[in-house]
């Protein structure tokens, strides 16, 4: 059976993984929208990207590590800026590359061992 500190670390890492997944998902929806032929499909894909941003905004306040929070917030801001532009499908953007593991998670794992 896992100890409470181990479960807490695991839950925190799950949150970080979820936010990074939502970020990647939002970027994927924008990329997919560029490939769709119908306006209806493009609009639905852009709407799904916006939902990913909303999910990130909902949970990002729970990130304890400032550097981790700043990185996720910055990348989410970039995606949101793209979605709010006049034509998100024609905008050039930097590749958003969310991290898969937080520094806090690595430190916490070391302290639990």
List keywords for this structure.
73% helix, elongated, 113 residues, 4 helices, mainly alpha, disordered C terminus, single chain
* Number of contiguous helices: 4
- Class by helix and strand content? mainly alpha
Q: Could you state the order of secondary-structure elements as H and E? A: HHHH
Described by strand count, sense and barrel closure, the largest sheet is:
none
The overall average pLDDT, rounded, is 84
Overall tally of domains: 1
Describe the structure.
The chain is elongated. The protein is 73% helix and 0% strand. The chain has one domain. Helix 1 packs antiparallel against helix 2 and helix 2 packs antiparallel against helix 3. With 113 residues, the protein is mostly helical. It has four helices and no strands.
């Amino acid at each position: 059976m896992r100890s409470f500190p181990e479960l807490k670390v695991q839950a925190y890492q799950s949150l970080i993984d979820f936010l990074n997944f939502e970020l990647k998902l939002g970027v994927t929806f924008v990329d997919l929208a560029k490939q769709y032929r119908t306006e209806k499909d493009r609009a639905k894909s852009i709407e799904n990207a916006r939902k990913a941003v909303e999910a990130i905004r909902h949970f990002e306040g729970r990130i304890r590590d400032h550097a981790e929070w700043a990185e996720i917030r910055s990348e989410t801001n970039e995606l949101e800026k793209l979605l709010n532009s006049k034509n998100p499908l024609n905008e050039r953007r930097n590749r958003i590359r969310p991290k898969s593991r937080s520094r806090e998670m690595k430190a916490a794992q070391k302290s639990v061992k």
